[in-house]
Write a structure and sequence with these properties.
248 residues; alpha/beta; Rossmann fold; 7-stranded parallel sheet; 7 strands; 15% strand; NAD(P)-bd_dom_sf; Sc_DH/Rdtase_CS; SDR_fam; oxidoreductase; NADP
């Protein structure tokens, strides 16, 4: 039976790969993101896909998605919280004051990485299929090893206790909640060819299998966590980083 799968950040990279993975099983996918043109193009590549352009860092955007889901589907079987990004790629603070710049960096990262996931989840959690619903969060290896600036890593790490609390809250309804923590993933806008070759190779060398990850590696893990086979797995973080989280 076809399920309804809502994927934030579904227009590119890991989100788009995840949408394709679920659609291949005949599931209905709803792609969510800020850029309508990107979403429209992505949805056009996936049979039966719908999309909602919304800024999930504010209550209005999350409520917009919830209204669409309520009107079109009624319930959500799988929610994949993939939207996010590197705050360093967002507009910089228009100030030279170091404290103001630090406040800006932390605020931006928590807005785009933490609030986007929390607000969408809060907007849809009462509509999760019960039993059988799945809530999934995209964290990062940075939550364990840092990100150089602290703010991005902190914004991803904040998802872990939220997911645990949510798993306890939704568990009695038969809804599982899990986190996936990728490392270096090629072919994504997050990395997007901006990483110097030497730094990228150093990241690859930290893995135990000698390669960068792909969007498909993460998508297939999310798909499995949403399957009946993972029905007794909840409040867990699955590392998808070639063992790099352990270090070498």
């Amino acid at each position: 039976m076809a399920r309804t799968v809502v994927i934030s950040g579904g227009g590119s990279g890991i989100g788009l790969a995840t949408a394709r993975c679920f659609a291949a099983d005949g599931d209905r996918t709803v792609l969510v993101g800020r850029r309508e043109e990107v979403l429209r193009e992505a949805a056009g590549q996936i049979e039966g896909a719908a999309y909602v352009a919304a800024d999930l860092s504010g209550p209005e955007g999350a409520a917009k998605v919830a209204r669409f889901v309520a009107e079109e589907y009624g319930a959500v079987d799988v929610l994949v919280n993939n939207a996010g990004g590197n705050g360093l790629l967002e507009p910089a603070a228009d100030t030279e004051d170091p404290l103001a710049r630090a406040a800006h960096a932390w605020t931006v990262n928590f807005r785009i990485n933490t609030l986007t996931a929390v607000l969408l989840t809060e907007a849809l959690k009462d509509r999760m299929a019960s039993p059988g619903g799945r809530v999934l969060f995209l964290s990062s290896i940075a939550a364990y090893r840092g990100s150089g600036s602290g703010s991005y890593a902190g914004s991803k790490a904040a998802l872990h206790p939220y997911a645990f609390d949510l798993a306890a809250q939704l568990g009695p309804r038969g809804v599982t909640v899990n986190v996936v923590a990728p490392g270096l993933i090629d072919d994504t806008e997050f990395f997007g060819g901006r990483m110097p070759a030497e730094r990228r190779q150093a990241r690859v060398d930290e893995t135990l299998n000698g390669r960068a990850g792909t969007p498909g590696d993460v998508a297939l893990t999310l798909h499995w966590l949403a399957s009946p086979a993972a029905g007794h797995i909840t409040a867990q973080t699955v590392q998808v980083n070639g063992g790099a989280e352990r270090g070498r």
